[in-house]
Every structure is written in structure tokens, then in C-alpha cells.
Amino acid sequence: MLRIRGLRPIGLGPLDMEIDTGACMVVRGPSGSGKTLLLRAIADLDPCPGDVRLDGVACADTPGPVWRRSVTYVGADSGWWADTVGEHFQDWTRVAAEIGTLGLPAECDAWPVERLSTGERQRLALLRALELQPRVLLLDEPTSGLDADTTQAVEALLAGLRRDGTTLVWVTHDAAQADRVATTRLSLGTGDHAA
To answer: 65: cis peptide before it, omega within 30°?
Structure first.
């Protein structure tokens, strides 16, 4: 269980919530309402007052890199630091099974990063996060650049992870997507409450 108490990202809070193991909390709100700030605070990427715990273990008591392997943030525009796709993965074979299901060819590991479209970057950033085998995935608009078929494939992949016990916190502007994937919701900019 992911438990958050008194979390105060800049301009928000305090926020209190509990997200069960394997659940999907969808976070919605207008642009600028703090959705990305919330995800980054949970991932311990930005300093923020409050208490975040995963199965009773406090983020504050866990080294940052260890926390972020368990509670992994996938940004809307993820960073790329090497020339080719494969250089961003520790073990390409670990994600090879999912490559095809997300509409990418197996040989895309040899592609130069500069040739990737926005949608390809999104899918590969998600696969890069999955390689860490996180217990919580913090997803910032993971399908915003994707067509309907690829969005469906990403949703199916993430539903399978949930069945295996991965908890999702998913930011989306797509109301229909929120209806499909949410087990619980948080609306920001409208009183900041969970529903």
C-alpha cells in the first residue's frame, strides 16, 4: 500500500491518500493544477514536506535511488542521455517480450534516439521503467502522443501489471481513459480531494 500523509508539493496540499496494492489512482485536473508536481514529490524527485510510505517503509528512511527503483516516475517527456535506444536499458532481453505488443520492432534497440517520434519515446520510456520492476508506477500522460490502437496496447500492458500487484498513479486529461483504468481518483484544482 502507498500511504501519503501531509504531502505539500508547491502550491498543493496538504494531501492525504492511501492507494491499495494493485490499484490505479487516476489524477486529473486542469493544466497547471500540480499533477506533475504531485508525481515528482511521491517519487522523491523534488524536496517536499510530508510523509510517503510504501508498505510502511518511509521514503525519508530510504536512499533516493532505492526508493525510485520501487516508486518509478515516467515523465511526459522522459530524458535520453545516450545515442541509441538500447544504451538506455540494462538488459534489452528483459523488455523484449513487450516490445512487439507496443507496436515497436525488436531491432529498435539499435535506433538513434534522435529519430524517435514522441509516441515511440513514450513507449520506450515506459519499457525502460518496467525494466526496474517497480512496485509503484507514476505515469504522467503515458499515452498522450499515441493513436487509439497503441493506447489500447499500453492500457492492456498496464492492466496486466496491476493484476500482478503493481500500483499505478496515472495522470490523464482523457476522461474516457480515466473511466477505463481508474479504481480511484484524485481531482486537483477542485478542492484537492480523492474520490
So the answer is: no
